[in-house]
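In pairs, describe these two lines:
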Amino acid sequence: MNQLKKEIQQYSKKYLNEIINIRRQLHAYPELAFEEFKTGDIICEALDKEKISYKRGIAKTGIVALIKGKKPGNKTVGLRADMDALQINEKNNLDFSSRHEGIMHACGHDIHMASLIGCAKILNNIKNHFGGNIKIIFQPSEEKYPGGAIVMIKEGVLKNPKVDCMIGQHVHPSINTGKIGLKYGKSMASTDEIYITVKGKGGHSATPEMNIDPVVVASHIIINLQDIVSRMATPTIPTVLSFGRIFGNGKTNIIPDEVFIEGTLRTVDEAWRQKAHENITQIATNTAAAFGAGANVFIDEGYPFLFNDERLTHRVEHYAENYLGKKNVEEIDLRMTAEDFAYFSHTIPSCFYRLGIKEPKKKEIYNIHTSAFSVDEKSLETGMGLMAWIAINELGAKE
């Protein structure tokens, strides 16, 4: 295996410039959820070049390729990358900055796709060394409900051949290039969107006694809802309840009839998640009623928490330490961000790890989902090589 590891590392270096160019194409032409048509063209062109068979149109814009090992084996390992971009105006001044105004790969999905393309190239060149199958999954719509993962699962992406385990990676801006981060068990939160409509009685701002002010009511609702985290949640269950939008169509001298509140709930326990939904509804409606107003609450249930299978993650940690060196595999904390890879993790054994993308000497870090987000493209060498190494090792792993 040491010779094979060296071969993979050599391929990773050899393909780096080509994969960087593919990443830049993907970055220059970002597309939103379920609209990844040009993105798919770029991916398929790369797969065609390697004569790797694939199917398009799964979950509308998704792509699934299959690489069959030449040795005996029935196990199938799934490797996944997400495809969609975000509604963000890019502020980076690069030759390959986004050509699509208001859309940007600000979450690293271009890195994920390019890494997986490079991984597929490597695996296709070393298929004489392994048995079984590698299913290469390019998944649309990670950023938007209902998410492409659940749609692909419903359309049979984990069947024919049956996928035994799933591996995914995601960029991490604060981890240096050449390193990865791992978390056992619950590693990312569930996510729900909260929509509250506060119904009052509008009127002139100078005669508040004649109105039922929904702006004041909405303010009390937001403050009271903070008790869900500080007074109702079990301290051992991480919970976040945040509100990012509040608006009403009033003026300095006009109190509106309605105010709209939008926010998110994140946690890692399904029973508490459902109880929190009940608490949100009860507190919002009761608070509004105390002022003589009304409140309609709609909770759009999103992705479940992401769970890294303990045994699979232990093996991935071992593979990564062997490939990168023990000092380059870090333990990371639970994140309250969410990821629709979670649907895979609740269906089959899965492991989702973090790929370092920070230049070691660079002090300033731009987080994901920001207009100045950037990456060290040398991380692609680690991204494609490590994933290929994990895949072929896992094909021979014993439970």
